[in-house]
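Risk register update: the risk of archive-format incompatibility is retired. Evidence:
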Amino acid sequence: MQTHPGTGYRFGPFEVNATSGELLKNGRPIRLQEQPYRLLLVLLETPGEVVSREELRSRLWPGDTFVDFDGSLRVGVRKLREALDDNAEDPRYIETIPKRGYRFLVPEVRKMDAAPEVAQPNDYPAPLQTDAIPVAPVAASERTNPLFRYGLVAVALILTAAGVLLWQHRRQAKPLTDKDVLVLADFTNTTGDAMFDETLRQGLAVQLEQSPFLHLVTEERIGQVLRMMGQPADARLTPAIAREICERTASAAVLNGSIASLGNQYVLGLRAVDCRSGQVLAEEQVQAARKEDVLNALSQIASRFRTRVGESLATVEKYDTPLVDATTPSLEALKAYSLGRKKFATEGNSAALPFFRRAVELDPNFAMAYAYISTAYSNHREPELAAENIRKAYELRAKVSERERFYIESHYYWNGTGELEKAASVLEQWQQTYPRYYSPYTTLGAIYRALGNLEKALEQVREAVRLDPNSGISYINLGNYYVNLNRLDEAEAVFKQAEERKWEYETQPRSRYTLAFLKGDTARMAQVASTAMGKPGKEDLMLAAQADTEAWYGRLKDARELKRRAMDSALHNFGKEAAASNQADGALIEAASGNLKLAHADANAALKLAPNRDVRETAPLAIAWAGDTAAAEKLAAGLDKDFPLDTLVQRYWLPAIRAAIALQRKDPERAVELLQVTNAIELGEPRLIVVHLRGEAYLMLHDGTHAAAEFQKFIDHRTLVANAEWGALARLGLARAYAMQGDTMKARGAYQDFLTLWKDADQNLPILIEAKKEYAALH
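Archived output:
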C-alpha cells in the first residue's frame, strides 16, 4: 500500500481509517473483510481514474499464481459494494470498466488524519494555553485578603470563559481546503419577492467561481443526482435536498444562503454546513439598504466568506470582480440568465436559448449572456449568429471576472475570428489559473480535434473526465475521440455509461449512430435514429447522418430526400444557417458523384439561403468541381477577404477550393503545391476532402504510387471517415491507382470492393457508370 500510517479517507458518509483498518459510516464501524478493504484503499488512491485489472492483481495478489484472480476480484468487488450500499447497475462509488478494471467514481476524496480526536473529560474544553508571563511574588497577607480571593475567582472565570470561546472557535473553525467540493443550495427567500428566487444563487455562484480555491458541484451533476433521487432536474435545492446531494457526491459542505426583509432593508446570510455532521463551518451576514444594493451586498458576503473558509487574501483580492460587472446590475436580466444556465446544463442548447436572449434584451451589456448565446448557436451549426454574439461579448469583456474573460476570449478566437492557436493559448492559461475546472480541457480537446491532432484531443478530454467524471459533454467527446482512433470497444463502453446514467446531449444520438454504423449493426442504427425523431437539435443531425449513410452506398436519391428533411427540421426549429449547411454538404456529395448540374444548383441555393462561413467553405468547392471555375475563384477571394485570420479557412478550405479549380484547369502540379499547407491538419475534416483532392491530382499526374498512398488514408482512418461518402469513393480511387501501377490483381480487388458497396446504388450515377467500364476493361 502507498497509504501512510495515520492517513485516512473520507467520502460521502464514509471514513476509512488506515491505521486501525476500519471502515466507518456516520461514525459507526462496518464489517469488511481484509481483501475488499485493501481493494478499497487501492481505488481511493486515484479517485476518478481507472485502476486496471493487472494493477489490482499485482497490488492485491502479488506473486500468487494459484489464486483464482477473476473470481476473487469479483467477490471482493461485490462485498465492497455491499458494504458501501452501492449498486453495480447504477453505481455511486465503484464503476466497472468492462475488460479494463474499476474506477472510484467520487473525484474529490478527502484525505484526513485518521487518528481519532481525544475528548476532554465530560467533553469540557481543554485548559487555555498561554505564553508564560512573569508575575511578582504575592505576600502571605495579600493571599488571605478576601478581595484578593475574589479577584482570583474573577480571573479564573475570565480565563475559563476565554478557554470555552477558544475551544468553540477551534471546534467550529475548520477551514475548507482547495481539494474540497461544495454544493450551493437555493437561497431561502422570506421577502415575498420572487425576483430573488434563482437570481441570488446564480449571482453567488458567479462570485464563488472566480475563486481558484473553491470548487462548486456543477449544475449538470446536480441535475443528474436529482434524477437519481427521483426529483426533477430543476427541483428547488432546499437545505435538506442540497445536503443529500452533498452526501451523494461526497462533497465537503453545503452553502445555504438566505435573504430576509428588515424594514425597508434586506439582510443576506451565508452559512457553510458540513454535510456529514451538520456542523456550521463558517457564516457571514450583510445588509443592503435597498433592493438595488442587493447584488453589491452579495459580492461583499462572497468575498468575506472566501477569506473565512481558508482562501488566501491575495487570491481573493486578485479574483474578486463585483457581481454587477461580472454579470449585470439588472436583477431581472440575472434571473433570466440563471434560468438559462440551468436549462443549458440539464436540457441543452434549444431549451436555454430563449432565456439567454431575454437576458440581453433586459441588459444589452450582459457579456456572458452573449457568450452563451454564441455557444448555443455554434452547437446548432449556425456560425454567423455564433460569431456575431461572441463578438458582442468580446467587446463587453472589460469588467468581467477572470474566469469569464477566459471563456469569452477563448470562444472569441474559436467561433469569432477562427484563430485556433490563439484560442488554445487562452485555454492553457485558463487551465493554469483554474486547474480543477474541466471546461477548458473539453474545449481545448475540441480545438485539437479540429486541427487533426486526435491523440492530443483524447488526452485533453480524458483529463476533463478525470476532473469531472459526470460531465455529459466530456463523455460524449471522449466516446467520439475513441471512435476516431478506432478504439470502438472503449467508445461503446463510454456511450453505454452515458445512456445508463441518462446523460443527455444533443449530439449524443448521432455519435451512437456512427458507432453502430462502424460495427455494422443496422438494427441499432435504426433504433437510435428513431429516438431522435421529433426532438429539436437532434432530429436534423440524425436525418443528415442517415443521408450520409445512403450516400455511402451510392443511393443518392434517398440521400437527397433525407437531406431535404434535415433542412426542413433545421428551418422549423432553428434558422437558415443549419439548413443551408445541410444543402451545401449535399451539393458536395452530388459533385463528387458526377451530378454536376445538381451540385451547382444546390451550392448556389445554399449560398443564397445563408452565406455563412461554413456554407462559403463548402459551396465554392462544389461549384469548382462542377466546372464553374470563375465563380469559384470569386467566392474564394471573398472568403479570403472576410476571414483573413481563420485557421481552417486559410490552411484547409481555401487551399482545397483553389486545388479543385487547378484540377478543373488540368494543372495537377499546382493542385499538389496548393495542398501542401494542409498536410499538418488534413485529419481535422473527417471527410478528408483535401486528401481526396490530392489523390485525384496524383492520378492526373499518372503517379499511381502516390495516388494509392493518399486513397489508402481513407482505409487507414476508416473510423474517422465513418459513413461519409468519401470513404466509399476512395475505394474507386485506390482501384484506379493500382491499375495505373499495372497491378491488375489489386486493381480488380479494389474495384470489386467499390462495386460491392454500391451494388444497390442509383444506376444512373456518372461515376458508377465510369467505374463499371473501367472494371470491365481490366478483363
